[in-house]
Amino acid sequence: MFALMAIKELYRNYLLQLQGIYPLSEATVIMDWVFESIAAVKRSDLVKDPSRQLHNKTIEQLSNIFSQLLQHKPVQYVLGEAWFYHLKLKVNEAVLIPRPETEELVEMVIADRSTQIIDPLVLDIGTGSGCIAIALKKNLPAAIVSAVDVSEMALAVAKENAARYNVLIDLLHLDFLDEKKWGALPRYHIIISNPPYIPENEKEKLAKNVADHEPHTALFVPAKDPLLFYRKIASFARSHLHTKGKIYLETHEDHAKEVKALFSKDYAYAEIKKDLFGKERMLVVAT
Predict the structure, then answer these.
(1) Digits of tens for pLDDT over the chain (287 positions)?
(2) How many CB atoms lie within 10 A of CB 203?
(3) CA 60, CA 205: separation in Å to the nearest integer?
(4) How far apart are CA 195 and CA 113, in angstroms?
(5) Is-contact 253 281, C-beta < 8 A?
(6) Are 134 and 161 in contact (CB under 8 A)?
(7) Distances (CA, A) of 176 to 145, 153, 179
(8) Among candidates 77, 96, 75, 90, which has minimal Cα distance to 217?
(9) Residue from 125, 114, 78 nearest 247 by CA
(10) Which DSSP category does 232 fall into?
(11) Cα 86 to Cα 239: distance, rounded to the nearest angstrom
(12) Residues with Cβ < 8 Å from 95, sequence gap 6 or more?
């Protein structure tokens, strides 16, 4: 049995513990998300009714969740959900947690294409949870969207998310690095990817909640070949990108200029885009 405790006191106790792992601002966001999701308690409720007590079952749920959080497990995996471009998606440790920077990449595609080709063929390389593909299909409903991933477990998550929002996406199990598999794919108007780009020797620089829990196949590339996926995408696009088509890529901020130089060899236009924090994190390429 768990001792009864007022919600404000319970909130404060867990917040103090989380601050041992996360900065106060991030810990507060996590707290608010967990309390609203599990206990239907919003921040305003802590002010309006701070002495309110929760059911014992809810307290037990919160205790279990925070024991996982205190082991550096990301809150998205603990709750099994993540928000991306106004969509609540299922996530687990088979897929990367969608990031705000990737939302910016999606926003660029929507802004670029919404008044041009009505029904573009789109390919999302390394789809993971399906976040990019689903967001594009929801906002460009006439688009014909395909998404590939090397992980069958990731594709299972993407399939669930697509079904949740009733969008039709062609999900393909495919090792994109194997050029022999490319022949089965058509030409596209849009190729988009947030590929693995973190050199393996940078693992120690990552936060424990990322390095210890997110899928390494979706994060890391060999230290000796940090542009591995970009080289493959550049090669693939030479035969699979329509005339006047575009490529949208997320990049490592330390390698954005190298990625641009790579694409500039074969493509007429390659421009680095900065994210909201001023980091060079995206590249737009055109024929």
Answers:
(1) 445 678 888 999 999 999 999 999 999 999 999 999 999 989 888 888 888 888 888 889 999 999 999 999 999 999 999 999 999 999 999 999 999 999 999 999 999 865 566 789 999 999 999 999 999 999 999 999 999 999 999 999 999 999 999 999 999 999 999 999 999 999 999 999 999 999 899 888 888 888 888 889 899 999 999 999 999 999 999 999 999 899 999 999 999 999 999 999 999 999 999 999 999 999 999 98
(2) 15
(3) 34
(4) 22
(5) yes
(6) yes
(7) 16, 16, 7
(8) 96
(9) 125
(10) H
(11) 34
(12) 128, 129, 151, 153, 154, 157, 158, 215, 218
Which structure tokens are listed for 116?
């041009």
Name residue 237's beta-bridge partners.
none
Gap between the Cα atoms of 262 and 265, Å rounded: 6
Say which residue the tokens 């103090």 belong to. 16
Task: Say if strands 87-90 and 121-125 run parallel, antiparallel, or are unpaired.
Answer: unpaired
Per the listing, tokens 């969608």 go with 98
First to last CA, the chain: 65
At residue 44, what is the residue type?
A: S
Say if residue 12 is exposed, middle or buried (CB neighbours under 10 Å; 0-12, 13-18, 19+).
Answer: middle
